[in-house]
Specification:
Blueprint: H1 4-21, E1 30-34, H2 40-49, E2 53-56, H3 59-69, E3 85-88, H4 97-103, E4 106-110, H5 113-126, E5 130-136, H6 149-160, E6 165-172, H7 184-199, E7 206-208, H8 215-220, E8 225-228, H9 230-233
Parallel strand pairs: 1-2, 1-8, 2-3, 3-4, 4-5, 5-6, 6-7
Helix pairs in contact: 4-5
Length: 237
C-alpha cells in the first residue's frame, strides 16, 4: 500500500504536468489536502510529508483535530517553514461562525449574505480579517450548496463592503462524473465568471476547484486551489 508521502509526491507531479501542459507556473496552484474523517495520526504523517494546507468539512470534527495537531511548521518542499493552514471547505451554518473564525485561516464556502455578515461580525469581535471565497452552485443540483450564478455578483459586492472579510475568489463543486473530462465545462464556466466579475469591478485572485478524480482538468482551466483527499490519504474509512 502506498504511503501518504508517496501519494503526495504523485499528486504533486500530476499537478506540475497539468500546469505545464497549458503554460502555467505550477507554483500558482495550492494543494488543499482534504482531511475529512482522517485521524490525527495520519494527518500528522501528511504534514511531515509536506502538506501545508488541510481542508475540513465539519467544524466540530476539525476543532478536535486542530486542538490536537495545531499549526506546526511544514517540513518539506510544500511551504517549508510556514505554519500549516486549516481551510474550511464544507457547508458552514451561521451558528458555527464564531468557531470558524477562531479555527480556520480561510473559508471556501460562503453562500449567502447572512452568513457573510455573521462571519464579519465574529471576525470583528476577534479583531481579525477572515479570508473567504464564494461558493457557486453551477450544476443546479439540490444536493449541493452554493449561491446561484446569477446572484454571485451581488453577494460579492456586499462582501466587499464588510470590513472584516477579505474576498479572495470563487469555489465550485461540479457533479461527480466517471470521466474527469465531463467536469471541464463547469471549470470553464467558473473561470469565465471570475473574469466577468473582475471586469465588473470585483477583484478576485483565487479559483477553488478540482478534487481527486479531476484536479488535472481543473488545473488546466485555471484552478489556484485544488481540494484532494482520497488521492493523498486513500479511501475514507
Amino acid at each position: 500500500m502506498s504511503t501518504i508521502k508517496e501519494n503526495l509526491l504523485r499528486v504533486t507531479e500530476r499537478i506540475e504536468k497539468a500546469a505545464r501542459r497549458v503554460g502555467r507556473d505550477p507554483a500558482e496552484i495550492k494543494l488543499v489536502a482534504v482531511s475529512k474523517t482522517v485521524e490525527a495520526a495520519r494527518i500528522k504523517e501528511g504534514i511531515e510529508a509536506g502538506i501545508s494546507i488541510l481542508g475540513e468539512n465539519y467544524v466540530q470534527e476539525a476543532q478536535k483535530k486542530i486542538e490536537e495537531i495545531g499549526r506546526p511548521a511544514c517540513t518539506e518542499r510544500f511551504g517549508e517553514g510556514r505554519p500549516v493552514a486549516w481551510h474550511f471547505i464544507g457547508h458552514l451554518q451561521s451558528n458555527k461562525a464564531k468557531y470558524a473564525v477562531r479555527l480556520f485561516d480561510m473559508i471556501h464556502s460562503i453562500d449567502s449574505l447572512p452568513l457573510a455578515k455573521e462571519l464579519n461580525r465574529r471576525a470583528e469581535q476577534a479583531g481579525q480579517v477572515m479570508k473567504v471565497m464564494v461558493e457557486v452552485n453551477l450544476s443546479g443540483e439540490f444536493t449541493k450548496f452554493g449561491t446561484e450564478e446569477g446572484s454571485v455578483f451581488h453577494l460579492a459586492k456586499e462582501i466587499l463592503n464588510l470590513s472584516h472579510l477579505s474576498l479572495e475568489g470563487l469555489m465550485t463543486m461540479p457533479p461527480y462524473f466517471e470521466s474527469p473530462e465531463m467536469g471541464r465545462p463547469y471549470y470553464i464556466q467558473l473561470r469565465s465568471l471570475k473574469e466577468r466579475m473582475e471586469k465588473g469591478g470585483v477583484p478576485l485572485k483565487e479559483l477553488s476547484m478540482g478534487m481527486s478524480n479531476d484536479f488535472e482538468i481543473a488545473v488546466e482551466e485555471g484552478a489556484t486551489y485544488i481540494r484532494v483527499g482520497t488521492a493523498i490519504f486513500g479511501a475514507r474509512r
